[in-house]
Amino acid sequence: MAATRDGFGIGIVEAAQENEAVYALCADLTESMRLNNFEKLFPDRFVQTGVAEQNMIGVAAGLALAEKVPFAASFAVFSPGRSWDQVRTSVAYSNLNVKIVGGHVGLDTGPDGATHQALEDIALMRTLPNMTVISPCDAQQAREATVALAKHVGPAYLRLSRPKYPVLTHTSPFKIGKAEVLIDGTDIAIITTGNSVHDALEATEILQKRGVSIKLINLHTIKPIDKKAIIRAANQTKNMITIEDHQVYGGLGSAVAEIISQELNFSINPELKYTMIAVNDSFGESGSEKELKAKYKIDAQAIVKKVVDLLR
């Protein structure tokens, strides 16, 4: 049991040990973003900007121009939430090698409430040219994604969360832009990302006991998206559903829908039925993760109901 932010904390230390150009920046959230160990081990490569996310991105851009590999970390509602202009112009437009790390995303942030629940960050970041967007499903994948991003050249966004979940990806090597098929099946393809993978897995176990054959895909890289994996899944099943802890607009579901619509007349099964599970154009509120996911209908029970309705 570990949070994806824990995996990031381990991964950035590994990356810094391999490459002395790796730097970490934080906006007064060192413990929350799991940068404590990095600060102790590499004090000369740690920059505490204070509560100034826009300035943090500007400093990171300057470090990138000096051929460093900066990871700029804060809660996602603050960065990219408050710093999107600087991310767009100083990082993406200039195509600089800056890694933006957004923590405490989605309804999983729980009691912190609507102001701290980033439900729009995938939409904000995937629309930016040059930007890579990654949403790991567990701590191990977050660790591997961090190490991979340190070697990847170009702007990137890493989406992290606070709650602890079981580690699923013990033996799965991480590759940017390559979807991970967790379970293979033929009745319906479930495509999900981040912590929603765990809800989808719970729902899959329930559905399998009812005789439903599920193809479960962890799309940890939202951009560049694994187009081939989506097309393959669409042709192997007649039903497809996406699940995410994010607004229904602009996130994973929208990204998959774009692929389906563009390829429908060429290589995708025209009989395919497609739907999305996400937060339906609403802000969150304060409560436990379990309560909120149930209320906003993105938990395992909601997934089971949606799949049953779709198959009918």
Please describe what this structure looks like.
With 312 residues, this protein is α/β, with parallel strands linked by helices. It has 2 domains: 4-159, Rossmann fold, CATH 3.40.50.970; 180-311, Rossmann fold. Helices cover 38% and strands 19% of the residues. The strands form 2 sheets. Strands 2-1-3-4-6-5-10 form a 7-stranded mixed sheet, with helices on both faces. The protein is globular and about 60 Å long. The model has no long low-confidence stretch (mean pLDDT 95).
Topology:
Blueprint: H1 4-18, E1 22-26, H2 36-41, E2 46-48, H3 53-65, E3 69-75, H4 84-92, E4 99-103, H5 121-126, E5 132-134, H6 139-151, E6 156-159, E7 180-183, E8 188-192, H7 196-209, E9 214-218, E10 221-223, H8 227-236, E11 239-247, H9 252-263, E12 273-279, H10 289-295, H11 300-311
Parallel strand pairs: 1-2, 1-3, 3-4, 4-6, 5-6, 8-9, 8-11, 11-12
Antiparallel strand pairs: 5-10, 7-9
Helix pairs in contact: 1-6, 3-4, 7-11, 8-9
